[in-house]
Each structure stands twice: as structure tokens, then as C-alpha cells.
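SAMPLE LOG
Freezer: B-3
Tube label: C17
Construct: single chain, 250 aa
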Amino acid sequence: MQPIVTIALRAAQSAADKLNYTVNNISQLTAEGATRKDVFDKAIEDAAWRARKVIRTAHTRHHIDSVQIGMEESREWDGQSRWLIDVAAGEVNLRNGYPSFLVNIALYTKDKIDCVAIVNPMTEEAMTASKGRGVQFGDRRVRAEYAPLSNAVCAIETSSVELLSKWQEVSAGLRMTGCALQSFVDLAAGRVNIALADKMSPADLSSALLIAQESGALTGDVNGKPVKQDRGELLAAAPKLFKQLMPLGR
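STRUCTURE (predicted):
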């Protein structure tokens, strides 16, 4: 594993440990009058600080941005490296103790994503991806799996009844976790054959796009057209299957 990916994974695991502890001990943590909201607010913030500390210790010349605690600029910035930390992808799930939320930590070089580490705090599953180097899921390399459309399982995150109905009709079944990024982790891990999400955050979309492409999948927006960051839409599948999906986007 590349040293930079090792740091990303270490930072993600440090944040994940804090969130795992909070979910598993929420009854005790609220026993003295603190509200659930207050406990999770603090845990999410603490997790972001933990991740930042790991990265800052290793990389003093990188900017470190965080969805939860904002930007920390380096006084000796190298002019190209910026980290983006999101410790609560699937935050509604996190706050309800539903075990489908993720810590998402990515490094950008000249504003283009270079590598990402994803950790599920509850299952302790970890996925990493690096531009041009593929995807690792735990200790194994993984790729998106092909299946004929009639047998393909689709992970989908949308509030659109129209999209849900369309994909229910053409696929073998739908899977919804409440975490858009999880859909693309599951695609790369071979658990589903199609992943589709709309209204993704910029952090989720960039990481999901890298994971999908490095797992060998083709990508587009929900209609199969080129991805636009400001739309927050992503559809991905193994190449042979993706081509079968194109008539559905017309």
C-alpha cells in the first residue's frame, strides 16, 4: 500500500473508532442528561479532529479541509495537496445507530482526487482506491462484477419515485442503505452490479467516482451522460452492463 494511502486509512480508522464507541455506548453517554443530538454532534466533531491530527502529523505542508470542522491551511503549503475529510457520510444513519455510514477521507492533488480511504465504523470494513492503482477492499483487490441486466442487483439512493420504479422494473432487485457512498463501495466489492445515486455531496461524489472507475466500472449521470459535479448524480456498472443501461437513459 502506498504511504499516502496508509495515512488516509489510518486517519479514517481513528475517526471510525470514535464513532463506533459513541454508537455502542449511546445509552451510557446520555444517562446523565445529555441529549442524543448533543452526544452525536460532539462525537462527529471529535472524529473529524482525530482524522485531521493523523494527517497533520504526517503531512505538515498539506491543506486539510473538513466537512465538519472546516479548513486548516498549512503555512508551508506545497501548492497542490489538499485533504478532504467527511466523517459522517450517511449521517442520518449514524445518528440513528443504523450500521450503514462511512468515514470518507480523500487527498486531492491540484484539485483532482488522487486517493481515498473509506471505513465503515460499525463493520470495520475498509476500502481504498488510488488513481491508476485500482481498489483494495480489506486485503484483496476488487473489481465491479458483470451480470446480465435481468439478473443485476442495483444499489440505489434517490427520493425520485420515477427512478425507483424504472430500476425496479429492469433489474433483479434494489438495495437501499440510506448512504449514497455505500452504494459504490458495494459495487466495487462485487455485492451489487449497478450503483446509482442523485443529490450526492461533492465529497461523496468525488470519492464514489474514483472508486467506481478504479474498480473498472463505466460511469455517467443517472441518464448515462457525462458526470457533472454540480448535479450530484452518478450511475456506474461494469462496462458490458453499462452499455446495456444506455437505452434506459433516453
